[in-house]
Amino acid sequence: MIGDCRTAALVCRDGSIDWLCLPRFDSAACFAALLGDEGNGRWQLAPAKKHTSTRRYRGDTMILETTFTTATGKARVIDFMPPGTPDACVVRIVEGLEGHVDMHTELAIRFDYGVTIPWVSRRDRRTLVAVAGPHLLAFRTRADVRGEDMQSVADFTVRKGEALSFVLAYGESFKPVPLSIDAAIALDETERYWKAWAAICNVKGKWRKAVMRSLLTLKSLSYLPTGGIVAAVTTSLPEKIGGTRNWDYRYCWLRDATFTLLAFLNAGYTAEAAEWQQWLVRVIAGAPDQLQPIYSVLGEKRLEEIELDHLAGYEASRPVRIGNAAHTQLQLDVYGELADVMAVARKGGLPLSPRGPQVRAVFLKHLEEIWSLPDEGIWEIRGAPQHFVHSKVMAWVAFDRASRAENSTPQQRAHWKRLARAVHKDICARGVDRKRGCFVQAYDATHMDASLLLLPLVGFLPATDRRISATVREIEKRLIVGGLVQRYETGSGVDGLPPGEGAFLACSFWLADNYRLMGRRADAKRLFGRLRRLANDAGLYAEEYDPVAKRMLGNFPQAFSHVALINTALGLMMDDVKPAQKNIKSSTHARRETHPVH
Question: What one-character-per-residue DSSP string does 134-169 give?
């Protein structure tokens, strides 16, 4: 991934940019080959003849370097998106390293998710302009570009010490064409931007590199104008190849809030944490019964889900969806996330919302009325609502955190404490399988769910509690495939979808967190080490992993996976330092100082 904190592009190992939405993450794609074929738009830039390639990010930046080796020489393609430009743009610089390399580029612009072929005109010797409806792309290079099969094509040779740049800038067709930029200056400024941002990180130790790459990814998934953070760059990358579990993740989920806030705070990024908190405060404005689990990066509520029949899908995985119908679901856990964010922000020293106490009171009054209802849960099932244990636990979190809020009245705190106890009692009575002694996915059910691993992480019960230990054992028996954790038993039919998907990477990190809290430190480190090795060659993670086929699944790169890595690494690193030297705030893994006694 390369990005400018407004949108992002995905670059293949073969030098093709196969996915890019402009001007923001959830805009329509102008390169959609990822979900179709070359005819749906892409930008290829690679050697014209047989070659091999390796790639890496340039230090602690989002500048991608792909080195191509051919029989005649070696060349490097540098890809990046400058964060500070008025218009979103992609810059690609080809450098000759050894001998000479014959290069070829094909630019196929297809607006509106691979449908619309723009009209292309030449403005001057170095500038092509592509226009369709409201969209405009300006393509600038010194290479000799020609039109061929509805594409802009060029062939050129780069020798050692030579460089040739390409700049693709987005604009609106009814405004002036975006101004030209100097690619070399943009590269220098982009490198300085990312290095300055990375220098803020206060994490030290053997896992700093992995943590830093995840932090950079998380920052790149943030939308700078508002502070919102998308779950992933993509839509409809399948959770099972050839299956229908294909969803649009280019939006912001409230349930990611606390994990994300902790990751930023614990790594020293107070400004990012504050921006994320402010985004949350803005989007929840309105009546409490209008609270949604998902919003756009701007905070928009309407995310209607539709299917794009003209796209064949990633490896024939259909349908391809844009929008997400889960925005209309009842997901009780988001109320707990909001309460937890306020508590974590308060402990982290972030500015308090001036209307925080009033908002808390209104939202908790509503939660008091609905917490006993069934909901669609953390996994946003498309089946019948259930009394999911994790959802009830997060309702408990909401009341528990509020009962400890200093900026509430004694009467309010006492009332919320009583509610927290009542919810806790209900969960322990109805959410535990009496025969096995473990928590289960939903009331009166027997199936397991990896979200139960969050119970000790949010402080519902200590990891040493026998019910938690039994839950971990049952998850190990029923949800682990190839050493990794699946979200739940998809064959149960609970989600109303065909069964089958990969292991969920965030859940696997949660299991490592549980091992650590249970004193199984060797197991925690072993699992964490395996998860680290699953990253791709650029250090990025998708949502899921297939341990049998040994490939990633789901949308990419996935914020939830990277946040989980950061918090697990920080928890393990916290254990490695002496108590007096600990500078990591209360982490996701042990953010409660005390636990209720039953």
Answer: TEEEEEEESS--EEETTEEEEEEEEEBT-EEEEEEE
